[in-house]
Amino acid sequence: MSDETTARLLIKCSDCPGIVASVSNFFYNHGANITCLDQHSTDPEDGVFFMRLEFQTPNIDISRSVLEKTFAEAVAKRYNMDWKISYASSKKKMAILVSKYDHALLEILWLWSRKAIDADVTMVISNHDHLKTAVENFAIPYVTIPVNKENKLDAEQEILKLLDNKVDVIVLARYMQILTGQFVSHYPNKIINIHHSFLPAFVGANPYRQAAEKGVKIIGATAHYVTSKLDMGPIIEQDVIRVSHRNTMAELKELGRDIERNVLARAVKWHLEDRIIINDNKTIVFN
Amino acid sequence: MSDETTARLLIKCSDCPGIVASVSNFFYNHGANITCLDQHSTDPEDGVFFMRLEFQTPNIDISRSVLEKTFAEAVAKRYNMDWKISYASSKKKMAILVSKYDHALLEILWLWSRKAIDADVTMVISNHDHLKTAVENFAIPYVTIPVNKENKLDAEQEILKLLDNKVDVIVLARYMQILTGQFVSHYPNKIINIHHSFLPAFVGANPYRQAAEKGVKIIGATAHYVTSKLDMGPIIEQDVIRVSHRNTMAELKELGRDIERNVLARAVKWHLEDRIIINDNKTIVFN
Amino acid sequence: MSDETTARLLIKCSDCPGIVASVSNFFYNHGANITCLDQHSTDPEDGVFFMRLEFQTPNIDISRSVLEKTFAEAVAKRYNMDWKISYASSKKKMAILVSKYDHALLEILWLWSRKAIDADVTMVISNHDHLKTAVENFAIPYVTIPVNKENKLDAEQEILKLLDNKVDVIVLARYMQILTGQFVSHYPNKIINIHHSFLPAFVGANPYRQAAEKGVKIIGATAHYVTSKLDMGPIIEQDVIRVSHRNTMAELKELGRDIERNVLARAVKWHLEDRIIINDNKTIVFN
Amino acid sequence: MSDETTARLLIKCSDCPGIVASVSNFFYNHGANITCLDQHSTDPEDGVFFMRLEFQTPNIDISRSVLEKTFAEAVAKRYNMDWKISYASSKKKMAILVSKYDHALLEILWLWSRKAIDADVTMVISNHDHLKTAVENFAIPYVTIPVNKENKLDAEQEILKLLDNKVDVIVLARYMQILTGQFVSHYPNKIINIHHSFLPAFVGANPYRQAAEKGVKIIGATAHYVTSKLDMGPIIEQDVIRVSHRNTMAELKELGRDIERNVLARAVKWHLEDRIIINDNKTIVFN
Hints:
Four copies of one chain form a homotetramer. By secondary structure, chain A is α/β, with parallel strands linked by helices. Chain A folds into two domains: 6-87, Alpha-Beta Plaits; 92-285, Rossmann fold (3-Layer(aba) Sandwich), CATH 3.40.50.170. Chain A has eight helices and 13 strands. The first copy, chain A, has helices at residues 19-29, 64-79, 103-113, 132-136, 152-163, 181-184, 207-214, 249-272, and strands spanning 6-14, 33-41, 48-56, 82-87, 92-98, 119-126, 142-144, 169-172, 191-195, 218-225, 235-242, 276-279, 282-285. Chain A has a seven-stranded mixed sheet. In chain A, strands 2-3-1-4 form a four-stranded antiparallel sheet, covered by helices on one side. In chain A, helix 1 packs antiparallel against helix 2. The longest helix of chain A has 24 residues, at 249-272.
């Protein structure tokens, strides 16, 4: 099951009997070895059906393009499927946006350096130059694009130009600027943000301060796809940690930092491994 | 450290040097053996100081009333303390309000029956009669006071009359009626509610439905003191459990049920053991 | 997906390409609607393959017995499968063995009374009569069979006679007697025990004492199938809770009690829902 | 409460009435402001008493040495105390031993670089040179001392010479050599190891393999002080993570890695902040 031979199919369609049989038959008949199969239905009657198939390609009897074309005609059309096949050997391209905090960024880069996060990290873009050395130590280009009230839209244009529609995922590793809906519309369901609270609690600025003022006994972090609504996109992953009246705001931030970096790393990993399907404003995560 | 001999002092005052020394001296000099001491300061300069002292009474050289009077004059006055001494041998009186769900109620009663919750449960009051047999099996009186739109205020008056200002804590074990501010004002910081969400997320009705619609990956429960603002009183305890897209709403309720009953039981236990001090809209819990 | 119509197939065989396609085809062709499919392979090359299929029966075109016979011939034989089909409508029969502690027993019975545990509880057998009333309140027969050094084997014979080979699962809800290998051999992979430690740590007697003496910072509980080797059978489920130097042995037991009952309840539920396949001395749990 | 002014007193003695009063009086009378007080007794009658006092020094009326001498005579002698005062401004010296795995080491160094771990890291010693660049990027000396069967004792002598009795704590951040009792005897209760299992389960080599073969549903990590008995020293901290039949051995290692680094970091932090007192083969951790 090496990266050289692994492919993944994601499917979304109306549920009805026969889908699993049709799909598994198709791949078996063409020589694919199914090594993992996950499926979910919101309701067997009238619901939405989701499927993730991991298969090995060495003995497939046709080329990638023919396989996809044949699948489209022989299976996908019949069930009116929304579908996509990805190949682990074609690494996804990833850009990271960051401000001054290093923890989420360094976790991603460290996992990347040990191949636990499997992507081509094409660049890190920041509105500050604080983390330039840290990033360049990983031999990754670091571009500083300052942002202020006046140049916000220009800065976004500059970022879009740099990205050049060539990245498969943009990771906001504590990027402290709110992206415009216009920017987001270029990368629908491709921008992953880490918010430092257990959403939907504490939307917006200073969630640790909000948590301290509310006196919660548990704090959390949430990784989600970015939509035009602030902190409201589909949630990919969340985690929490217990706190108490003893913890100062500085300690909340310190404790939260560990949760943030782990939650973001898991979400990015799952995105890269094609484990996430979006259903309205929610996610199906086959992990 | 039996219940016969254990006493507890709770203190709240402005922080300044010397409080711990004064308090511990006072009790030592009167023959009390300090078996547990917890303290917290929001800020050593200008902050609020909180303390919980557990001490054993057998060798105390003066009566309870003289001890309290002497402490008031010799220590509390100097630091302008808000303070209270409780004796484990004087069990707190507890009433439970419940509707139809049995899980939170039965957990409390089961813990009570094995003396893990140490109180006199004087009565269970419900707006339905569903749980009458279950409660009476524990030899606890069960009173049904139906509530509807028309009689809501009358029903509250009837409950107040039953309670007769003689209970130290009212536990809302999934009581599905919103108490009026007028009712709450009779028992400030003495009514504990279990809300079936991780507050402040999902205030109000149907939090599991809200959670399902939002697509959160973790659900929770919150025990809090009841104030006149719905679901906004000081949080005592919270806990969470991981869920996924696979969980139906019925399963969310089933999973949440375990969290609800455990969180409520811990909060009630801490209240009964005088482990909670309220500071504005937050709690200090010495556990 | 009511209990009336749900069936479950469990499969274990050598892994090779085509199994998923063959199985899903077979059931689709006979009118079964697959509502859940889980599979696992220890290794796509040369490994062992496991599968759980949940399907709905209303539109199946042949009788249960013909379906099973046809599946055996058309599919199972080809892959040399170890397999079994269960029907949710045929409730499993369950007996519970218990000594004096009530927490694990009451949890199971409470879940059973609200249909969250779906079985026919045929009897509770105990070596003491302490819990007779509690059990009979649930309208379940309670049989006392005292055990001592002299009559141990006779007592086991008496239990076997009572069970009469008619139960599908025996739950040891803190039954403080070690069953002989001879007894266990009558119910292979059908006896579920809850051990009050995080196995393999603290095998045998007094695990909470062992934990306290070792000074662990976390205690746990383990549900496992019983084999002839004490506390060494396949682990079904485990969970843990954080403790500290402050916790007395009595508190460890109290904290552990909550973990024990939850872990045992999950294991029993999964067994009843045919979610567990045993592989050597380990379990595959499709949950 | 800056590091400049914070001091910490640790006490261990036989329990008897009056200790808290004596200690708090002493410090109050000399102008120390107590900002944190934790205490624990194994038994108020005949037990062992432990105490941690955090106090601020700016207004203390005597020098450090006079304070300590006076405390020894006025308080410690009376209760036959084992005690120690540390000053946050005198940073502890720390050496780290590591082999090839980088995760535990980098976590410590990363926390150190952001001052969340407050020590002077004097050197990193390794039996391999793999991590030389990574460590030198932090401007910390890296010394390679290869170890094999023949030179083991010589290598230990070399390490001892390098350390020169000048370090307050030695952190084994996945150092894959077993230290001799002779080496350990030079640094009693000053060597912290991270073992990659939930001790006492899976002592010794390859705990992840042992866990996989046993089929546990949860894996863990344990930070402990090193004694002459392998993996048997006083446990400081433990944590766990849920796993399943789906996880390969490689994934267990990957999941365990996160637990290992967090558990070790917490243990090291607590040691540096004088939060740990050893009682026989167990720890009291005031955190």
